[in-house]
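PROTEIN ENTRY
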Amino acid sequence: MKNILFVLVLLFVFPCFSHAETSIKIGTMPAADSILLYAAKEEQIFQKYGLDAEIVPFQSAIELGAAMRSGAVDGYFTCLINAAIQHLGGTPQTIVATTSYARPNQRHFGLVISPKKEISSLADLQDKTVAVGKDTIVDFLLTQFLRSRNLDDAYIRRQDIRSIGTRLQLLMAGQIDAALLPEPLVSTLEARGAKVLLDDTNLRMPLAVITFSENVLNKDIYEKFRSVLAESADLINADPDKYKKLMVKSRLLSADTADQYSMIGFDRQNTPCYLPSAEELDLYFSWMLERKIISRKPDPNEMLPQF
């Protein structure tokens, strides 16, 4: 009886013992859909679901991928290309959410023309230099942009510039003709005089996902994390102006272009808790195999939750 009373006293005096939080580190890139995490942090939604989340920002996919491989982060915002490369390269991971999905009413990526270049049409773009990160989502999307207009990859000249910041600087200085970039950078550059020639609004496919290392992920974390994202998305959709200000505060959007930026929204049908279909995954994997980025196509079930 005394032992039972002692345990009850402990639970009353130290209630936090029964509400331990699970710590997770999530790597991000300066893309608009990262606001899902920043809003969840700001509104303490992670804590509500028993997660202690640290958001770790990166400026290049290479650095972010290295952090995932080393275990410095437990999960990360990424494209399906990088996720598949990492998965087949010895860092098994599982897709837990889709944070952006190409659809007609929202731009996620755009082909931006330098304001110092006289390029205003696809015909003008022929044989010009387009900066991408080789073997990344923008490289894949450039192929999709061209194919959707019955053009092949030889129509333009690719230049591999991995750092988004370097791509931006060279573009605005006129040292490259064009660059493929994510929002909100596209809107930022457009407000500064650059032109957007092509974008992803005529495509229907997942563009960015969040994956977790298989060494970290379990059913409990999976369900809690997805609940966090869903609640965060609802808040952003309900008050976009409020969270546009948070994007500026979180350095996802520059203050001088916030008024011109069309705030990202989340469509429950496709984001954030949607999981890519086998067919959508195969589109990416086939392109990767064609480019010899991978030696085999993963079975989609390898990278989708099996809880």
